[in-house]
Amino acid sequence: MNKNREELINGNMFTLLLKLSIPGIMGMLVIGLYNLCDAIFVGKLVGETALAAVSISSPFTFINNCIAVLVGVGSSSILSRAIGAKDDKVVNEILGNLILSVLILSLTVTVLGCFFSENLLRFSGAKGEILKSGINYLRIVYIGSFFVNFSQSANMLIRGEGKMKEAMGIMALGAILNIILDPIFIKTLNFGVEGAAIATVIAQIIQALVTFMYFKRNKSILSVAKLKFAFDLMPEILSVGGSAAMMQLMYLVQQTALYKLISIYGGDDQLVLMGVALRILMFTFIPIWGIGQGLQPIVGMNFGAKKYDRVKDAVKIFSIASTIFIGVLWGFYMLKPRVVLSWFINDRTIIENGYEFFRLMFLTFPVSGLIVMSMTFFQSIGKGGKSALITVLKQVILFMPIAIILTKTIGIKGTWLASSVTDAIVFVLSFVLLAIEFKKLYDINSSENQNITYIK
């Protein structure tokens, strides 16, 4: 613990950027492969109708992501700050809280999810064969909820220690297994859409077992031999993790709204196109979260150690790096949209009629770097409320009326443009909130009284 702590609170920031962000990006890209693999294999091996079923089901799989993020981000934030403050008592209580919380929440999702799958999909506009295949896919995913949620949330604890390479390695194992199993269950065993869900669940079960063994073999400062449950930690876990989970939940609401608008103002081709575009959007977003994963332990530990100048430096450097990274991908999407869409869609007519819509969705995407880093910053210092504010504005409060107004004003193009307009507004808000918080940190550093308590 001491070696990692000293490196994160005293090491060169650019070195830490590379050391923590590269594994973070790779690890988060691995997470994205779970979603992309299902879409690619189903689209190419089964067909557009099956792809539409998986796509329209996808937002509801984020219910599991909500649980993993709720418990994982909250626990990881507390862990990093506890390591920075050398609070061994809190460190020893985190893992037990995580396991029990994930178990209770996952069982709830499994029962309710299997029961209400059809209602959820009908609400999104699914019907006919798309509805039937979507129900089967979604129920299988919900059956594996505990394994998905434990493997992902516990992986966040490993990252919270600053052990990004170990976290990435475990995540990579699950992704590789998913890639291997997908074509076997979809095509070879002829399970179709259901095969994609089965492959994902099996891969996550194995990943969960490997994660458990990581803690059991004492490769971490956390150990299953020291499992404790501390009820007093739960409010902060839920408060900090709640803002991150809210983003996942609001993403579900946002996607559902988009599918609903597309089903009303577009058609089946637009539904296929939107499903692919949203998966590409999510996959592109994931590397940004990877950089954010590298930022989180640096901010958490330095904040716990009261090294506020390093906290500000880290946010600035990581924000610039994430913007540059996104800019490269954004440029490719803008220049070669047909190529990107052809990875998922065989029908050239859908591609030719839809690539301009695809561009509209990504128009202002480079601003996402600062937005995500600001959210990560607030989560890492225990101010989940401000992170939640950015999330809700970005994905519901601003997005929903903008999407409806633009769609009614300029037609289906407005549906695709809504995300870009919303992101531009949220970028300005995030910048202002960061500036205000940095001023508070500056005032603390400038104060002659070093014992002032930082007011949350």
Automatic annotation (TrEMBL):
InterPro entries, sorted: MATE_fam, MATE_MdtK, MATE_MepA-like, MdtK-like
Q: Establish whether keyword Protease is in the entry.
A: no
Pfam families xref list = MatE
Give the main location: membrane
Q: Would you say which domain of life the source belongs to?
A: Bacteria
An example Gene Ontology biological process? monoatomic ion transport
Could you tell me the membrane topology recorded for this protein? Answer: Multi-pass membrane protein
Give the protein's recorded name: Multidrug export protein MepA
